[in-house]
Write a structure and sequence with these properties.
The structure holds 2 protein chains of 2 kinds. Chain A is an alpha/beta fold. Chain A has 3 domains: 200 residues, P-loop containing nucleotide triphosphate hydrolases (Rossmann fold), CATH 3.40.50.300; 162 residues, P-loop containing nucleotide triphosphate hydrolases (Rossmann fold, 3-Layer(aba) Sandwich); 79 residues, no CATH class. Chain A is built from 20 helices and 20 strands. In chain A, strand 11 and strand 12 form a beta hairpin. The longest helix of chain A is centred in the middle third of the chain and has 16 residues. Helix content of chain B is 70%, strand content 3%. Chain B has 14 helices and 2 strands. In chain B, helix 3 packs parallel to helix 8 and helix 4 packs across helix 11. At the A-B interface, helix 3, helix 4, helix 7 and helix 11 of A face helix 9, helix 10 and helix 11 of B. Chain A: Keywords: ATP-binding, Cell membrane, Membrane, Nucleotide-binding, Repeat, Sugar transport, Translocase, Transport. Chain A: This is Sugar ABC transporter ATP-binding protein.
Chain lengths: 532, 343
């Protein structure tokens, strides 16, 4: 059986569509890492030409499951039946031969190789069972790449084919990664958070790609946190919790509330978190703030105890505005007043000293020292205050500060000495918020506070944000997660092409209205309707 | 800074500076080529005696051993590693082979001698690769270790005495001349036949990197080993291969060194490591791995040979050569960092 399957790598699933066996059956899959039981008997099957959504909180075993399906790790127990053939030992090559393609969150692209190499090499590698001492078929490499690029709507000229991945914008990379996955004769394409860095329009493009894949009998398994998006795309939901599969159903049959409940095992609020805001005097006043080519004449104000949302498309200047307010990339002209006092913010240290806390978007690259303990990360911004007589950091004081913040923010960790990288995404985000709370800021700027965070942690982070505003802190929430803004803010400012085009009370706004203000009026629902 | 999603956003800003940066980014070899041209023109203007064929022969002769080493370093560097043991491998192979041939088979032909040293070098290189794979240690550390180990093994177990009477086949090979010219100062300068060895090695390395899957795999694991592994590249096989290839080239280089000097000195070739690595870097390879080309490497080697051999023609004392070389390397470093930022 095994040999047979190898000699015909990834037999075209399209031809077998008529067969009644599912493409993949997962039977009673277990995975143990030392003493940790990460997967506890997961079973499900993937039919041909369908969309699936694998849902679950961080640490529920989703990633482990994907690693096993893609051959990156062996399972401890259980069977994978692919195309009716039981497979015990999968390695990356055998998984690809069997027709399982995986687009990891980091895209699995080789930055220093060209687009065509990234797309076409895998196929030639798989055909030779991973043997490397073979000639490279240059022409076929190009043909493979062209075909796949055309399917995802990317250019197929020689210039693009030979450009290096590291020279491409992130959204293009994401599409190249998807092109690679569909270049071979895949039966199942697994996509881990494929839409994180895509704009609306690109997401729509992706969805239409998925529909053409279905027509060829290819199934797609999305792994995602964005419940709204899942519901828009449609298909079946596979919900996991604590290493077990808790529910499989048609996603249209479940409400977001129910899905969240199955994932977390507890009731989650779906409505507004913002209740009885107590607004004080105006704290922050921004007037005519500009930075050449990024944003222009931006004016707004935030009161004590108020939560202001700022949103816009990727190129709207919202990210640059956040960086200017935090002193990371200063503005060229305009005025920032905090409590009536004019601030110049040439660098992050002066923002910090003025009482402005900034929690960056990408907690991994911009904020945290991953291999350092929680304590060190939390007190990083207040080392000056922790000095003892000798000018050294007072360890007991720093432990007390860190300990208090950790319990306030409900960080789940063995102790404050645990390295941050051992925590889940949501807890890492809380540590980062903790660092800026330690400076006791008057104004807190949160940039995409729940990117890559599961629903349960999202809930906790929202409650923390509300609690902070209730203490009289002014909060600016910069995000492209519209439900997040609608649930948490008092007012929302929308940016387009570097300018604030509208500032409205959140209660009077809807997602659709926000999309229109952002200049992204085409909705996924319409696009899906056209292609279906 | 901007996270713009389309290429068009970058288009209007492409002025002369960024186009130049883009050109060097695409063809990093051009940097070494440019320096070579500038150097040649400068030296040629100050001393027209530079423009004679005899000088070219000299430069080629002096480039062969360093060139072979550099091709090996390129392979390891492209795969994301660093090898500093090649000089010790060359010394061990050249001395052991010369001694063995003299003692046991003085009439052995040159081809057999080359095969013996290539295999010997490849085995020593493979030991590097195995250690890197099993210890999961940085290859720089591993090869510093094996460099001492190989050199120590040579001096302890094989010998320390100079070998003046090298086997006749090697002697003849070292004297083999493709062409000869009488220079203006009356000396006769020859284009040695062993230049062809470098040409063959360069062609073979180039073809292997370009036209085989293993060649692409070298760059793949040099770019991101973790991702390459996930995509089904066997990282350990590639590691083993690049170190064996580097060892093989080092063994061959050792034999050429002995043949052209007509002398086997077990203390030779020590300290050449940095200048070889510099040649590869000047040729456009990134020290962090995943890039570099055979053409660039050869240009880098020629550049370093030029600095070492021709500055004397315009009266720059040899002590200054090192300083100028350092300046070039700093320039290359700054240059490549700047265009990375620009890109």
């Amino acid at each position: 059986m095994e040999l047979d399957a190898k000699s015909q790598p990834a037999a075209a699933p399209g031809q077998q569509r008529a067969r009644s066996t599912p493409f993949l059956e997962v039977r009673n899959l277990h995975k143990r890492y030392g003493g940790v039981h990460a997967l506890r008997g997961v079973s499900f099957s993937i039919e041909r030409g369908q969309t699936y959504h694998l849902l679950g909180e961080n640490g529920c075993g989703k990633s482990t499951l994907i690693k096993i399906l893609s051959g990156a790790q062996p399972s401890s127990e259980g069977d994978l039946v692919i195309d009716g053939t039981p497979r015990k030992e999968l390695d990356p090559i055998r998984a690809l031969q069997a027709g399982i393609e995986t687009v990891y969150q980091d895209l699995s692209l080789l930055p220093n190789l060209s687009v065509e190499e990234n797309i076409g090499l895998t196929q030639q590698l798989v055909e030779g069972n991973g043997r490397l001492f073979r000639p490279l078929h240059g022409r076929r490499l190009r043909e493979t790449a062209k075909g796949a690029l055309a399917k995802v709507g990317l250019p197929t000229d020689n210039g693009f084919l030979s450009s290096r991945i590291e020279d491409l914008p992130i959204a293009t990379r994401q599409l190249v990664a998807i092109a690679r996955a569909i270049a071979g004769k895949a039966g199942l394409v697994i996509m881990d958070e494929p839409t994180t860095s895509l704009t609306r329009r690109e997401v729509e493009n992706l969805i239409s790609v998925v529909r053409t894949l279905h027509a060829d009998g290819v199934s797609v398994l999305f792994v995602t946190h964005k419940l709204d998006e899942c519901k828009e795309i449609g298909g079946r939901a596979i919900v996991m919790r604590d290493g077990e599969m808790v529910r499989e159903c048609d996603i249209s049959e479940a409400s977001k509330r129910e899905l969240g409940q199955w994932m977390t095992g507890r009731e989650l609020e779906e409505g507004r978190y913002r209740e009885n805001p107590q607004l004080g005097d105006t704290l922050l006043q921004v007037a005519d703030l500009s930075r050449d080519g990024r944003f222009a004449d931006v004016s707004f104000s935030v009161a004590k105890g108020e939560i202001l949302g700022i949103t816009g498309l990727l190129d709207s200047g919202r990210n640059e505005l956040a960086l200017a307010l935090a002193g990371v990339v200063p503005a060229d002209s305009g005025e920032i007043r905090l409590g009536g006092e004019r601030l110049s913010l040439p660098d992050p240290a002066s923002a910090n000293a003025a009482g402005v806390g900034y929690v960056p978007e990408d907690r991994l690259t911009e904020g945290l020292f991953l291999e350092k303990p929680i304590e060190d990360n939390v007190v990083m911004a207040i080392l000056n205050r922790l000095r003892n007589m000798l000018g050294l950091v007072d360890r007991s004081k720093s432990a007390a500060v860190a300990g208090k913040l950790m319990s306030d923010l409900k960080v789940v960790a063995p102790n404050i000495k645990a390295p941050v990288q051992s925590l889940s995404g949501g807890n890492q985000q809380r540590v980062l918020i903790g660092r800026w709370l330690a400076i006791e800021p008057r104004l807190l700027i949160l940039h995409g506070p729940t990117v890559g965070v599961d629903v349960g942690s999202k809930d906790t982070i929202f409650r923390i944000i509300q609690g902070l505003a209730d203490t009289g802190m002014a909060v600016i929430l910069i995000s492209d997660d519209l439900p997040e803004l609608l649930q948490n803010c008092d007012r929302i400012a929308v940016m387009q092409k570097g300018r604030v085009v509208a500032t409205q009370a959140a209660e009077s706004l809807t997602e659709t209205a926000l999309y229109e203000l952002m200049g992204a009026a085409i909705r996924t629902g319409d696009a899906a309707g056209k292609t279906a | 800074m901007s996270l713009s999603a389309t290429n068009e956003d970058h288009a209007p800003r492409a002025g002369f500076a960024s186009r130049t940066a883009g050109f060097f980014r695409r063809y990093p070899e051009a940097f070494a080529a440019l320096l070579i041209v500038v150097l040649c023109v400068a030296v040629g203007l100050l001393n027209p005696a530079f423009w004679q064929l005899a000088n070219l022969f000299d430069i080629l002769r002096a480039s062969v051993v360093r060139g072979l080493f550099a091709l090996g370093v390129l392979m390891v560097l492209a795969a994301g590693g660093l090898d500093v043991s090649f000089s010790a491998i060359a010394a061990l192979v050249m001395y052991a082979v010369t001694k063995a041939v003299t003692l046991f088979a003085p009439d052995m032909g040159m081809l057999s001698i080359f095969i013996m040293s290539a295999v010997g070098g490849a085995l020593l290189g493979a030991i590097n690769g195995l250690l890197v794979n099993t210890l999961k240690a940085p290859s720089l550390i591993v090869t510093i270790g094996t460099q001492y180990a190989y050199r120590g093994f040579l001096l302890t177990f094989i010998g320390t005495a100079l070998f003046m009477n090298i086997p006749p086949a090697m002697d003849a090979f070292g004297q083999w001349s493709l062409m000869s010219r009488t220079a203006e100062n009356g000396f006769t300068v020859q284009l040695p036949g062993f230049v062809l060895v470098l040409a063959v090695a360069a062609l073979a390395t180039w073809a292997m990197l370009r036209f085989t899957l293993i060649g692409r795999a070298v760059y793949a694991i040099g770019g991101r080993p973790d991702i390459a592994e996930r995509l089904g590249y066997r990282v350990s096989s590639v590691q083993l291969f690049v170190f064996a290839w580097a060892g093989m080239l080092a063994g061959i280089a050792g034999i050429i060194h002995v043949s052209s000097n007509r002398l086997a000195n077990p203390f030779d070739l020590a300290g050449i490591e940095l200048s070889v690595i510099s040649a590869v870097i000047l040729g456009g390879a990134r020290i962090t791995g995943g890039s570099g080309s055979v053409l660039g490497t050869l240009l880098g080697v020629v550049l370093i040979t030029l600095v070492n051999n021709v500055l004397i023609l315009i009266g720059i004392p040899s002590s200054w050569q090192t300083a100028i070389l350092g300046l070039f390397i700093l320039c290359a470093g700054v240059f490549f960092v700047l265009q990375k930022r620009a890109g």
